Amino acid sequence: MRKQSTLIASSSLALALAACQFDVASTPPPEPELTRVAPDRGYNGEAVPVVIEGRNLKPLITQDVSQPGGVAVDTTFVARLGSTELAQVTYVNDERLTAMVPAGIPAGAHALEVETPAGDKATLADAYTATATPEPVLTGVTPTDVVNDQAETLIVTGQRLSDGMT
Q1: pLDDT per residue over 55-99, tens digit each?
Q2: 130, 42 contact by CB (below 8 A)
Q3: DSSP class per residue in 16-48
Q4: Is the peptide bond before 29 cis (omega within 30 degrees of 0)?
Q5: 59: number of CA atoms within 13 Å, CB side?
Q6: Do the beta carbons of residue 34 and residue 53 sit within 8 Å?
Q7: Distance between CA 28 and CA 30 in Å, rounded?
Q8: How far apart, in whole angstroms, are the C-alpha atoms of residue 17 and residue 38?
Q9: CA nearest 160: which of 136, 129, 130, 133?
Q10: H-helix or E-strand spanning residue 11
Q11: Chain centroid to CA 7
């Protein structure tokens, strides 16, 4: 009787595993794509938080059938602007990651490369521009109301403004 129960259990396991199999080669997962980085520029003298947008930015889901509840979700993405690795890359959903561009990234345009936990890579050319000087920040304009067709002097206030800016 023992051999019969072992045979039934082995047959049941084989049928269950056969039912779970599928042809991976015929349905490859969609490739990740990158569509934009926001903001797409920033001062290289300070860290800049960014949002990376795209499609099919999927975590890696694995299952260990030998362990109860053995499902693991790996959301470890790696993102680079040129050769500079971004910090604090965080998975939000299949269309969005957040990250921090570190201070000190070389000035200029940089391609963005993202590597998924499965090792798939996507690239977006000229995705981010690091500037060597900080962007000006406007905080006010006075007067706030002007009359059409009448010359007015405006006073613009802000940070990092210089004479002759247009």
Answers
A1: 999 999 998 888 777 889 999 999 999 999 999 999 999 999 999
A2: yes
A3: HHHHH---GGGSPPPPPEEEEEESSEEETTS-E
A4: no
A5: 14
A6: yes
A7: 6
A8: 45
A9: 136
A10: helix 2-20
A11: 50
